[in-house]
TrEMBL record:
Key word Aminoacyl-tRNA synthetase present: no
One Pfam family cited in the UniProt record for this chain: ABC_tran
Key word Ubl conjugation present: no
Classification via PANTHER family: ABC TRANSPORTER ATP-BINDING PROTEIN (PTHR42711)
Domain of life: Bacteria
A molecular-function term among this protein's GO annotations: ATP binding
Similarity comment text for this entry: Belongs to the ABC transporter superfamily.
Lineage, uppermost ranks: Bacteria, Pseudomonadati, Pseudomonadota, Alphaproteobacteria, Hyphomicrobiales
NCBIfam families, alphabetized: YD_repeat_2x
Protein name: ABC transporter ATP-binding protein
Record's keyword terms, sorted: ATP-binding, Nucleotide-binding, Transport
Ranges where the ABC transporter domain occurs: 20-249
Length: 324
């Protein structure tokens, strides 16, 4: 059993306590590169937190510092109230890390290497837990196989099993599904949800925006070593998401009538669709007035559709503003 499964499940959203507290965190490398610039971030117990950012934004550096792999240049990090520098062994025992790289003990069996990982953290042997982890990751049938014989996707599963072997309260997944097949991705999503239900906090970095949109409770965006936004996923999409009304016309249109220019309509290449973009927060969307003016202009439409901007649209827009 995972440690958190012995409790009564995760606390309600309003009752979640901070499990990771980062304040003024900086990292400057010898080359002069400022990988992190005074990062402040609080991650709550039992949530799935997606950390998004382009290559070189500082995602992996941030994770590496929290996990004790890289030393910070300044600031503090506390895990479950313990300082990562003053109480390294305690904080590291609370964390599981699934790195990007496929680094495993090639000639060990799957069960042996996962069992060994548990022992590294001073945990007592627990074959039942190891079996549960391997079964959750569809590795039980491969338990006696040498890792060198496994496919890339199976090796990725082994990395996850190793990270869960010591029953951590926090799990970091650093680009966990990069280069893996669709089936493994779906299996991992299901596993992450089960972990959250058991009270484990999951921090996910990913280039697959749909993963964050599918699973995350909150989203953080990092760019050039700075956290530029942290928001509840639903609230983020409500605040920054655009909504569009698509008017599918009965007859193709060569140009948007002059009377409709104030609406800044986009005409499709074949002239069959007009797209109206509006603010989801506005009390008045202008749709009723638009439809009246469309009819007044002599246009007829055979269908109306709405489309909400995705988290990827929002993310690209935020990064674009930051780079500008």
């Amino acid at each position: 059993m995972y440690e958190a499964e012995r409790a009564a499940g995760p606390p309600a959203v309003g009752e979640r306590r901070p499990i990771i507290e980062i304040a003024g965190l900086t990292k400057r490398y010898a080359s002069g590169l400022d990988a992190l610039r005074s990062v402040d971030l609080t991650i709550r117990e039992g949530e799935i937190f997606a950390l998004l950012g382009p290559n070189g934004a500082g995602k992996t550096t941030l994770i590496s510092i929290v996990c004790g792999i890289v030393n910070p240049s300044g600031g503090t990090v506390r895990v479950a109230g313990h300082d990562i520098l003053a109480d390294f062994r305690r904080t590291r025992s609370l964390i599981g890390l699934v790195p990007q790289e496929l680094t495993t003990d090639a000639f060990e069996s799957v069960r042996a290497t996962v069992t060994f990982s548990r022992g590294l953290f001073g945990c007592k042997p627990n074959p039942a837990h190891i079996e549960k982890v391997l079964r959750d990751l569809s590795l039980w049938d491969k338990r006696d196989a040498k890792i060198v014989t496994l496919s890339g996707g199976m090796k990725r599963r082994v990395l996850i099993a190793k990270a869960l072997a010591h029953e951590p309260r926090v799990l970091f997944l650093d680009e966990p599904t990069a280069g893996v097949d669709v089936q493994l991705r779906q299996d991992m999503w299901a596993l992450v949800r089960r972990l959250r239900e058991a009270g484990v906090t999951v921090i996910l970095t990913t280039h697959y925006i749909e993963e964050a949109e599918e699973m995350a409770d909150r989203v953080g965006v990092i760019a050039k070593g700075e956290i530029i936004l942290v928001e509840e996923k639903a609230e983020l999409m409500r605040k920054l998401g655009r909504k569009q009304l698509l008017l599918v016309l009965s007859e193709p249109l060569d140009a948007v009538p002059e009377a409709l220019e104030p609406y800044h309509l986009e005409r499709s290449a074949d002239g069959t669709t007009l797209t109206y973009t509006y603010d989801t927060q506005s009390h008045r969307t202008g749709i009723t007035r638009l439809l009246a003016d469309v009819s007044e202009a002599g246009l007829r439409y055979r269908d109306l559709q709405t489309r909400q901007s995705s988290l990827e649209d929002i993310f690209v827009g935020l990064i674009g503003e930051r780079r500008a």
